[in-house]
From TrEMBL:
Belongs to the SelA family. HAMAP family: SelA. Keywords: Cytoplasm, Protein biosynthesis, Pyridoxal phosphate, Selenium, Transferase. GO terms for cellular component: cytoplasm. It is found in: Cytoplasm. Its main location: cytoplasm. It comes from the Bacteria. This is L-seryl-tRNA(Sec) selenium transferase.
Length: 425
């Protein structure tokens, strides 16, 4: 054997390299082993140096798996970053539920039981005003189920000011019409009155829909009709509150919540699980017991059924609502300022052009449009944006006026050292 061949690392040695062990966890050992064998071949053919076999194997691995990201954008509910990060309890619950679990079985008598009954009990306990609760895949699915079960072949009465596009080109009116329901639009973009609704209601009405405009605000000469003024019209009222606040949040006075909507007379409330509730992607349905039961027993409900992992994460989120989203929302500006000053100071001492700056963070597409939260960031040269984005973990900030801002509002304090390391590498 020629000398350079002897210097080619053995497969076992290569597979023990930390970079390849980490890749194996993501991609599977088989894929990593193939990459190593291919790199050894290239070394044997003299195309690469024996010392470069591991680097070549790492470089040849396909991109796979979602990459973890530190959210330094200052946008708390960031749809492109997977909306709400789960709490530590929710993460443990997901891991626990990953194997066989009693999701649909009563261990006491060995018989089939209501799927996810402990999660449903936690949701019912969180909103005592709801006679019934059900969970589907996301907020859009909750609306589709309500429209199909209550208004297919009939009319949904909705204000022209609430015909919302939720993002990525998906529009609620199109979604509702896709169920076979007809939309009966009332009012105008800026003004809709109780009389507009009353005039549209008839024998064909399935329900009145009230949609919270969760990603825009209409200002000026406007009027909208609150749920309490719609609940006396003699037809069901479905309130799509969007954000998933179950009870009022003192810092977000304009954000609707499920308990208040039900108390105001809504028949059914629909909401997302992964916005301000801070849980997994899910669609919550809460309200009149008979209506919820009708939805739950509808054939379509089976197609919108949630996974055991979702149920586990949702239950943990409901049992301990101190979730990362609310921590980010409630973070004190003074604490953020101290962190920004400390991090910027440390970076400057290491020769990085970093300065603390006051910023404005937002809740994001998940709720409270127009509402800003005073925050603090570390401002860096714009060239850092790409480097940090491609790092491990990836760090995503936002570029403003030629500077990269790392807004600390959504960064848990214990991760500040990782930001420092990322800027230094
Ligand atoms: C976010 C939102 C939806 C869609 O919910 P998903 O969970 O994204 O499917 C529907 N309506 C409103 C008002 C929303 O804010």
């Amino acid at each position: 054997m020629t000398d350079f061949r002897r210097r080619i690392p053995r497969t076992d040695t290569a597979l023990a390299d930390p970079r390849l062990v980490a890749a194996g966890a993501r991609l599977g050992r088989g894929a990593v082993k193939s990459a190593v064998v291919a790199a050894q071949e290239r070394a044997r053919r003299g195309e690469i140096a024996p010392e470069d076999v591991i680097a070549a194997a790492v470089g040849a691995l396909p991109a796979a798996g979602m990459r973890p990201v530190i959210n330094a954008t200052g946008v708390i509910v960031h749809t492109n970053l997977g909306r709400a990060p789960l709490s530590a309890d929710a993460v443990s619950a997901v891991v626990e539920a990953a194997g066989y679990t009693d999701v649909e079985l009563d261990l006491a008598d060995g018989r089939r039981a209501r799927r996810g009954r402990t999660a449903m009990a936690a949701l019912a306990a969180a909103v005592p005003g709801a006679g019934g609760v059900h969970v589907v895949n996301n907020g859009a699915a909750a609306l589709v189920l309500a429209a199909t079960a209550l208004a297919a072949g009939r009319e949904i009465v909705v204000s022209r000011g609430e015909m919302v596009e939720i993002g990525d080109g998906f529009r609620l009116p199109d979604l509702l019409v896709s169920t076979g329901a007809r939309l009966r639009e009332v009012g105008t973009t800026n003004r809709t009155t109780a009389a507009d609704y009353a005039g549209a209601i008839g024998p064909d009405t399935g329900f009145v829909l009230k949609v919270h405009p969760s990603n825009f605000v209409v200002q000026g000469f406007t009027s909208a009709v609150p749920v309490e003024d719609l609940s006396g019209l003699g037809v069901p009222v479905v309130a799509d509150i969007g954000s998933g606040l179950l009870t009022p949040h003192p810092g977000l006075p304009d954000e609707p919540d499920a308990a208040t909507a039900l108390a105001a007379g809504a028949t059914l409330v629909t909401a997302s699980g992964d916005k301000l509730l801070g849980g997994p992607q899910a669609g919550l349905l809460l309200g009149d017991a008979a209506t919820v039961e009708r939805l739950r027993r509808h054939p379509l409900a089976r197609a919108l059924r949630v996974d055991k992992l979702t149920l586990a994460a949702l239950e943990a989120t409901l049992r301990d609502p101190a979730v990362p989203v609310l921590a980010a929302l409630d973070e004190e500006p003074a604490a953020l300022r101290a962190r920004a000053e400390a991090l910027a100071g440390k970076l400057r001492a290491d020769g990085v052009d970093a300065v603390p700056v006051a910023t404005e963070a937002v809740v994001g597409g998940g709720g409270a449009p127009g509402h800003t939260l005073p925050s603090w960031a570390v401002a860096l040269p714009e060239t850092y944006a790409r480097r940090l984005r491609l790092g491990d973990p990836a760090v995503l900030g936002r570029v403003e006026r030629g500077r990269l801002l790392l807004d600390l509002r959504c960064v848990p304090v214990e991760r500040d050292p990782e930001l420092h390391t990322a800027c230094m590498s």
